[in-house]
Design a protein that fits this description.
Helices cover about 45% and strands about 10% of the residues. It is built from 19 helices and 11 strands. Strand 7 and strand 8 form a beta hairpin. About 5% of the residues have low confidence. The chain binds S-adenosylmethionine. S-adenosylmethionine binds next to strand 2, helix 9 and strand 6.
Length: about 475
């Protein structure tokens, strides 16, 4: 069945389940819509339509009229949510097998999802399952070459950890999948990665299951980063953080409606893409959990190695010492560095100044800025490619390649890394027809390589901008 036909079937299915983008008939009076009074034959069209946004998430939801901030724009009844519970409720074998093993809630949802997908057209959820992507670019799906392309040790470590964790979860869940007599395809690690990436990138928070729920149509919303979070985050305690994470939600399960409800996070004009904030993420975290990065991410951060003797001088959490997306050092990083650059015998008398975020003295500030600028510069020099080289490489790999020959012509001899790409993807072997198009596997590897290069460019730019920031402060102080 063609994609368009599958989507149409899915929309019919969602409509019969009561998914609705016009929860109120009279939007001005906000009168609740009575069941069965839906005026359009489709669950979308009143507030939202499905559209394609090539540079902002692909398929997504578009405002079909002007939408006001705070307006309820989509309601997905509980009965339409796909959860471990709803999958097990309709499958006695599944719930019996799951009950015999000790699995985490994520593993249970992964097994349940694979079990359902394996039913094919016999599954009640089939129209919805056809809408899942066939593959994902989350970090755990990166191979060795793609991980190395991240260049930063911390990022490579994050990718290796993500892969290791996914592998362990898969191995531990294998006995239950064997008991359920999964076919080899659904037992494979590849299938497990697909299912766990589906969960990681498509589920919504629900209060009764930490693994979350799949929310038909609600999971068509693409992501926009919450703005101004840094200011809010710095200096808040854990309780305040809880309040903050609730506030960031523009999609939430509401008991009163017994449905997942989505609200417009801002005012939208007809034709705008309507976005959802999944939470506050750095680009590395977005890559890890969702398989994409943002070109402009107000919550991105760069960490650099700091002096060993810095940490005993302050009580800020380690992860609060970073460089912001625009190159400025975080509040805690500046405060801690100012204290570090103060002679020990003066610490007591200036601590309150440092902790209030104020400059201690011009000399002290200059030492801090010089140290940070030098560290960023050294870090950049220690990486195997420069920003300019990465940008050139990106401009090459970003093309639509027609054939193996075209890729080879452009990448052979460009950099050691591009040669390695050709090698690990078997494009240098005898017998690979040059006129052939790229295989799906190679295209996917190219996508992930691109993401890795893009990620490292963004990281390097933060360091580069930090150098500019520090240099400006030093110059201003010397006036
Ligand atoms: C919940 S789904 C959103 C709908 C998705 N585009 C679809 O067609 O099903 C989340 C996924 O959409 C993509 N995505 C969401 N927001 C994005 C953005 N701002 N830029 C790029 N990709 C995005 C990522 O692949 C992410 O894992």
């Amino acid at each position: 069945m063609e994609e368009a036909a599958k989507l149409e079937k899915f929309m019919d299915w969602a409509t019969t389940l009561g998914v609705s983008d016009s929860p109120f008939i009279n939007v001005d009076e906000e009168e609740p819509q009575k069941p069965g009074l839906r005026q359009t034959p489709c669950c979308l069209g009143q507030s939202l339509t499905i559209s394609y946004f090539p540079n902002a998430g692909g398929r997504g939801l578009c405002a079909s009229r002007d939408l006001q901030k705070g307006r309820l724009i989509l309601k997905v009844p509980k009965s339409a949510l796909m959860t471990s519970q709803s999958l097990m409720m309709n499958d006695h074998n599944l719930s019996m097998s799951i009950s015999k093993f000790s699995l985490s809630s994520n593993q249970i949802l992964t097994v349940s999802l694979l079990n359902e997908v394996a039913k094919g057209k016999r599954s009640w959820w089939y129209p919805y399952l056809t809408q899942f992507p066939s593959n994902y670019d989350i970090l755990a799906s990166f191979n060795h070459f793609e991980m190395q392309a991240l260049q930063l040790d911390d990022a490579i470590w994050a990718a290796e950890k993500a892969l290791e964790k996914t592998k362990t979860e898969w191995k531990n869940a294998t006995p239950v999948m064997e008991e359920l007599m999964f076919k080899p395809h659904y037992l494979s690690f590849k299938a497990w990665i697909w299912a766990s990436a589906s969960i990681s990138s498509r589920t919504m928070h629900i209060p009764w299951d930490p693994a979350g729920c799949f929310c038909p149509v609600g999971d068509f919303f693409n992501y926009a980063a919450p703005e101004d979070e840094q200011d809010v985050c710095e200096g808040v305690n854990e309780k305040q953080m809880d309040v903050k994470s609730t506030r960031l939600t523009d999609g939430v399960f509401e008991d009163d409606y017994d449905a997942y409800c989505f609200y417009a996070r801002t005012n939208y004009k007809k034709g705008d893409q309507v976005l959802l904030s999944y939470g506050t993420y750095t680009n590395l975290e977005l890559l890890e959990h969702y398989g994409f990065i943002l070109n402009s991410n107000p919550n991105d951060k760069a960490y650099i190695p700091l002096p060993n003797d810095l940490h005993s001088l302050h009580s800020w959490p380690q992860d609060s010492l970073y460089i912001h997306h625009n190159g400025t050092p975080s509040f805690a990083l500046l405060a801690a560095m100012r204290l570090w650059a103060t002679p020990t015998h003066l610490h007591k008398s200036v601590r309150h100044v440092a902790y209030s975020g104020s400059v201690i003295s011009n000399e002290n500030e200059t030492v801090v800025m010089e140290w940070l600028a030098k560290k960023c510069d050294n870090n950049l020099k220690n990486l195997s490619t420069s920003i300019e080289e990465d940008e050139l490489l990106l401009s090459v790999v970003d093309r639509e390649f027609e054939s193996v020959m075209e890729v080879k012509n452009l990448l052979l001899g460009l950099t050691g890394e591009s040669f390695e790409f050709l090698k690990v993807n078997g494009l240098l072997e005898d017998g690979v027809g040059s006129e052939m198009g790229l295989t799906k596997k190679t295209k996917r590897s190219l996508e992930k390589w691109k993401l890795a290069i893009w990620w490292r460019v963004k990281y390097k730019k933060m360091l580069h901008d930090c150098i500019l920031y520090c240099t400006k402060v030093i110059n201003d102080l010397s006036l």
